[in-house]
Specification:
The complex is a heterodimer of chains A (about 220) and B (about 80). With about 220 residues, chain A is α+β, with helices and mostly antiparallel strands. Chain A is built from 7 helices and 8 strands, in the order βββααβαααβαβββα. Classes of the chains: A alpha+beta (about 220), B mainly alpha (about 80).
């Protein structure tokens, strides 16, 4: 049976700025901050205490911060843990940390493959970090695409809802390489949550939301 | 002792790649694992390697590690005890 899906919330992060549900939620007062510095200031803005954040690599920090602002915008709903999915994608995979790991093992005299670094040399670790924080245990997948592709997203996420017992899903794009970063997360649900009706989940609405950051 | 513990704290932050943490944000008696700094078993492994590389101290018994790695101060005491023997 085809389920009606809705986009109930969104979070964009790029150029030292965070939008939640189409509205500016946080903007750094420092221009051209490094991604790590910006994400730390965003973490402070959230007002949460989550020590694991400081251990994460930059990609995980970006995904984590975007997911936290998204959840805040949704009113931090109680989630059906085993029926909540996560579906993420990007173009740079975990290359940012892969290169750091490579640098740490290039010098044979100081050769030391640090577990604290190489544990992040997979892009889907960002999914794990979000799952741990939110106790999510449903279906998950991480895809690599050249660019954000609304058509592919709609197709894959529809399949997820139609072929599994998924009831809601955190979806989107989390990409980071050196000083370039972009996150666009959105929340898909089969029914209104916390009184939010949201947007109909289709290619047109998703593309519009991604490009304009306007939640209308 | 406090000066050494503060130097050790900076080394630990660097070694564990806690790159966005400022030393002032970590108290010398703050718990390192669990709810404190949020370190886990991978970090315990890193700390064991760190002690061996930087201070030439081997921890043979993992149970011993639980006591040693409670905080920056407990690690500092352990190192100084070993350096004095």
């Amino acid at each position: 049976m085809k389920k009606d899906l809705h986009i109930l919330g969104s979070c964009h992060i790029e150029n030292d700025k965070i939008w939640v549900n189409g509205k500016t939620r946080y903007e750094s007062s420092v221009q051209d901050e490094s991604p790590i510095a910006f994400l730390k200031s965003a973490y402070k803005e959230l007002g949460i205490k989550y020590a694991k954040f400081h251990k994460m690599d930059a990609l995980c920090k970006l995904g984590f911060i975007a997911s936290e602002f998204l959840m805040e915008g949704l009113g931090r709903p109680d989630l059906p843990t085993t029926k909540t999915g996560i579906h993420l994608c990007n173009s740079s995979s975990s290359l940012d940390t892969d290169m750091r790991h490579q640098e740490s093992i290039n010098d044979l005299e100081k050769y030391y493959p640090s577990p604290a670094v190489f544990v992040y040399t997979l892009p889907n670790i960002v999914i794990g970090e979000i799952c741990i924080k939110n106790k999510i245990q449903g279906e998950n997948a991480f895809f690599i695409f050249d660019v954000f592709n609304a058509s592919e997203q709609v197709s894959l996420i529809r399949m997820l809802f139609e072929e599994t017992d998924t009831e809601c899903c955190l979806c989107g794009w989390v990409d980071l390489l050196k000083d370039e970063y972009e996150a666009f997360l959105y929340w898909i649900d089969v029914e209104p949550r916390n009184g939010k009706q949201g947007l109909i989940f289709n290619e047109l609405n998703l593309e519009h939301l991604y490009k304009t950051k306007k939640f209308v | 002792m406090e000066a050494f513990a503060n130097k050790l704290k900076v080394q630990i932050i660097q070694h564990l790649n806690l790159e966005d943490l400022e030393p002032d944000e970590v108290g010398l008696d703050d718990p390192l694992f669990g709810e404190g700094l949020g370190l886990d078993s991978i970090d315990a492994l890193e700390l064991i390697v760190f002690l061996e590389k930087e201070y030439g101290i081997k921890i043979e018994n993992p149970e011993e590690g639980k006591q040693i790695f409670q905080s920056v101060n407990t690690i500092a005491s352990f190192i100084q005890q070993h350096q004095n023997t």
